[in-house]
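so my prof wants the structure for this chain in the tokens format not the other one, which i didnt know existed until like an hour ago. anyway here's the sequence
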Amino acid sequence: MQIQPLNNEPVIFKPTPKQREAKRLLLTNRQLLYGGAIRGAKSHFGCMAIISLCQQYPNSRWVMLRKDSVVLKATLLKTFKENFIDKGWSQEIDQFNQTDLVLTWKNKSQILFMGENFDRDKDLNRFKGLEFNGAFIDEVNEVQELTLDKIIERAGSWFHSPNCPTKIIMSCNPTQNWVKRRFYDKFKAGTLPPGVAYLQAKIFDNPYIPQDYLDSLKLLPIHQYRVFVDGEWDVAMKVGNEFLRMLDTDIHVRANNWDITNLIHVSMDSNVYPYIAVTIWQIEKDGLGYKIKQVNELPAVDPINTATKAGKNLGEWLNKIGYTMRVLQYGDKSTKNRNNIDDNKKSFYDLFTEAIAKEGFRIEDKMLKAAPPVAGIADFVNAILAGEVPGLSIEIGENCKESINDYIETKTDKDGTMLKKRITDPKTGISYEPHGHLTDTLKDFIVSAFHTEYLAFINKKKGLGVRALSI
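here's what i got, hopefully its the right format
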């Protein structure tokens, strides 16, 4: 790609093959998310694309955004200066106001370098009335979804550059937040809306990365390598203080499947947002002990995040796989609390299990009458994961991606219980706990199904006899 500046010799961009692919997608779409591995030259492409648009459409106006002004100056602005201004593009700059961070080219096109600064401007006042043709949002996963919506609202509102298209370019590394739901998950499902494109970046797309650096990355834990180097999205990373601290995805996550001749155990949690958590388990004889296998997950997201619809979804899945035996039901006893909304006063548990029964299955209630302390259950489950409870092991099916991510994302509170922070969806106003619900189903199932082993473990820790505790 060659841009002929107004004066002097031409400045030549030398895009990588993947960047050329990004350019093709940008030409035919209004929005492009260029996401994936570190060092994939995503930010470089964003800068290159904005410069090209500025030069191609005189008097156009563009925004280049990061999460705050400090990060903007240390990263995106630094990349722009070192790779473009210092490499020949300074000759095309009319002025660059270092206070307002507004760059004006000789053809009167402008770039507004901005920080989102959401902590100081939650109403996004600085974007109100702002007119521009398009934007590059670097590390879009670090900004609010509300900010992207505001950018979309304002993009194309600058009418002083004839025939200038509206373009929004975004970059990011794999993330588990709204960006994944809005873009990557829909890309995988083939449901991205018209005019929106996604391009996967890998570090090997960048031919300028030294081999020594690539070799050094091989020393990363395999989970981090898959995220940062391979650019995988369906992988969460351990960063410390995990509730399931002894979970090792290299050891405990395996390709497995359900066995319709073996009893199926279902554990559920009654939170509605972000989903009703439903996990499927089987217990397999393993020598003198047992292998505890999670074979599936059926998180019930909107619009089936009601007790009845979630139960029906489970029953339909059981029929689909050809399962005909009884269903063993686990969960927190609070799901049996009667509601005061309707005359029937049925509990979440009642509605959920009745829906399963209507699909032709007999339910066997396996819930404990009293819930043991959460911190003690955590110690027990972590001991199983560490191989410290004779005769018990845990295996998570690699197909249970939501569960695996939740097991990694759920943290421990100061008292050893599960840390559950609430967030508020800025679009719906709904407040909910994003993590911990699938982890709840795991702990509730294991402590109920192996309650005798749990009591023996706790009593041993306390130096008591095996039968000393019986809760």
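also thought this was worth mentioning. The chain has two domains: 2-223, 249-462.
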